[in-house]
Design brief:
This protein is an alpha+beta fold and 362 residues long. The protein is built from nine helices and 17 strands. The structure holds zinc ion.
Length: 362
Amino acid sequence: MQPDLAYLLTPGAVVDRDGGPVAQAAARLIAEGLVCASTRSFVRCANPDDFDFVDALDPSCPGRVAAPEDGVDDWTWCPRCGRRLEASRKSAFEATVLEPNLVVLRVRLANVLAAAGLPVREQPEGVFRVESGDREAAVVLMDACGSAVRRVALEQGAVAVAADCGRFSWQVPHCTKLLAAAELVLVSPEPLLGAVRTALTGQPTVIVLPAPQQSAPERPPARFLLPSGAGWGDVTVYYVDGATVGIAVPGARPVHASAIELGMAKERARTPSRRFALLLHLCRHRGRTDWKTAGFAEDEPLAFDNFAAFRMQVSPLRRDLQRLFGLAADPFAPIGRSKPLVAAFRALPETPGEAAYLPRAG
Ligand SMILES: [Zn+2]
């Protein structure tokens, strides 16, 4: 099985036009209307034609980043291996960028179930119910429904499918396998059909979902749910590598996440933003820094011209952290020109001891 096929329905997936198996699979998805395609210019992390190929951590690294505009001197990180890239000195090439079409994907999923002789109805959007006698099974397309429906459906044993697997893999219960929609379409629907048949032979279940809330504007749900009453002091963020942080909250397994998964990547290029670099830097410096320290750090210096430029990165990082953890309180102590930036959460340069993740008693 092609390991890279699973990500082809991820929003913004980049595919080289080299005619290889991944490009051919992408062409099938385009032909079937499951993705929309556009063209953009990229540089490769590990490109034998580039001056920095000898320094590649992994000579077969598949990482790519958007080519910078002419004249822009852009340093960035490889989203796959984390090494720093001087993108403006590397050779650029055209590649195809894919965006999934969820409406077509929903129709496709329903057809796959129906073709296997399983009578299916979609209710609500993104939840496909299959009935057999007094038993019911459900398939939830994670990308196509709201967070409350996703959570309740999974709690009640729905089979989980996602187009954007990286985004949802952390949301499925530990014993549940998240099926990649791209693999079901491109390789075989059998894993989905097998899971549905297994669900239909288990306990009779009726999947009951909460009615969608019509009026209240949906606040983006917190990615990392904290127990009630918990605050920033209960959150641990730790350095994993140049492209990944680990996140630990009470009562849950720690999660490793990239800038893209945390919504901290640059919108178009999907490379880590400066605020993500600041978060990594904070971890390496145990939650305490200022604009001068950041500029002179031995590891991955993060230069700021002045305090104002530094504060300009602190603000979006604060908003992102509040959104990710669903906390309204400030994740930082008040900063000032002579006051360092101090995290209210635990920021660590290495993985903390396993004991830290045990659910708190009582
Ligand atoms: Zn790389």
